[in-house]
Write a structure and sequence with these properties.
356 residues, alpha+beta, 11-stranded mixed sheet, 3-stranded antiparallel sheet, 37% strand, flat
Length: 356
């Protein structure tokens, strides 16, 4: 079936999943492993086969009656796979084999690079569990093993940019000084015009490329070590979920240029020795390079059984940095506060009795 492809084990015909710990694609059935070079070659072959299938007119894509949903077929069991418009990699709901959706990672939507997962599921669970245990007032219902089984490894799309250009600032500021002469205070205010210019280079500016992604969470797990960026290979997606970008390059570039302009103003006005600066900065890039990349994250959601509030968490799949709001145990917090209050009240009473 065209429209999707899966990485099959050359030894037993099972599916391959990328193992972050080994840096290889591994068959969970017979243990066969292939290294990154072989994985890249297999990725190119599978992508070429999928494109040929699409060009032959059998896309494997149906009509679900909704523009936001797409229908594909699993190559292993033939079951229908329904995804939303930005899903690039998922699992078959029936045989649970990993599936990569061809048209979400090809042509204009093919990423320029990818940072593979370095932390596997077990290590992610261990680190998250240790993180929770440091927060003594966490709701204990959140510690269940079943809850931590819901960890999902997801590749999120980002635009990563670098810019070089000319920056300038034109404005006015002042200095104020005071001296005391006999019984008088003399204040001198001097006004200056500030003109500064320079050439500024920015690198590794990053913007989310998925509109529905929570910016506070996705920004909270940065930074990533971009030295570990690799050329994109769909084999890295096998066994994980992945999202396709829905933010265009022009929107990401405009946002980066606004940020660069703000940085330029701070750079060109710092250490001026002037107060009350009023003026305007400009940054005009003449060298711009934007890359579309997939970055790894472990994602967890938890719905409070009583308050029905949903808590969201993300962990950097490369270095383990965590972002999310911890659910508090209000009874435990009330007991501790009550105990502390009682102890303070007792000390005050004892002190008062002693003084009187």
């Amino acid at each position: 079936m065209a429209g999707t492809f899966q990485f099959k084990c050359p030894a037993c015909g099972g599916y391959l999943e990328f193992d972050p710990g080994k840096g290889k694609a591994v068959c969970p059935y017979c243990g066969t492993a292939i290294d990154e070079k072989e994985l890249e070659e297999e990725s190119r072959r599978r992508e070429a086969e999928a494109r040929q299938g699409e060009n032959s007119g059998s896309s494997g894509q149906g009509n679900t009656g909704s523009e936001s949903l797409k229908e594909y077929h699993c190559q292993m069991c033939g079951a229908e796979i329904v995804t939303d418009a930005t899903t690039a990699a998922t699992r078959c709901y029936f045989c649970h084999n990993p599936v990569v959706i061809t048209d979400r990672v090809s042509d204009a939507y093919q990423p320029d690079g990818i940072i593979p997962f370095r932390i596997d599921r077990e290590e992610a669970r261990r680190q998250f569990d240790a993180y929770l245990k440091k927060h003594h007032f966490t709701d204990r219902r959140f510690f269940t093993g079943a809850q931590l089984e819901d960890f999902s490894g997801v590749y999120y799309p980002y635009w990563i940019g670098s810019m070089v250009g000319d920056a300038s600032y034109s404005g006015e500021g002042k200095t104020v000084s005071s001296v005391t002469i006999r019984n008088e205070i003399v204040t001198t205010t001097q006004y200056y015009r500030l003109e500064r210019a320079g050439r500024i280079a920015y690198r590794n500016m990053i913007r989310k490329a998925l509109e529905k992604a929570d910016r506070q969470l996705s920004d909270g797990i940065h930074p990533y070590d971009q030295e570990e960026m690799k050329p994109f290979s769909s084999g890295y997606l096998s066994g994980f979920l992945a999202e396709k970008r829905d933010v265009e390059q022009i929107a990401a570039r405009e946002s980066m240029e606004r940020e660069a302009n703000g940085y330029a103003e701070r750079l060109l006005t710092e250490n001026s020795g002037l107060s009350g600066l009023k003026g305007q900065a400009s940054f005009t890039p003449d060298v711009v390079n934007l890359r579309y990349a997939l970055l790894p994250a472990w994602v967890l959601t938890w719905k409070h059984p009583i308050r029905k509030r949903v808590y969201y968490y993300m962990m950097n799949g490369q270095n383990g940095k965590i972002c999310g709001r911890i659910p508090l145990s209000w009874p435990k917090l009330a007991i501790v506060c009550g105990a502390v209050g009682a102890a303070v009240f007792g000390l005050l009473c004892a002190g008062g009795a002693y003084l009187w």
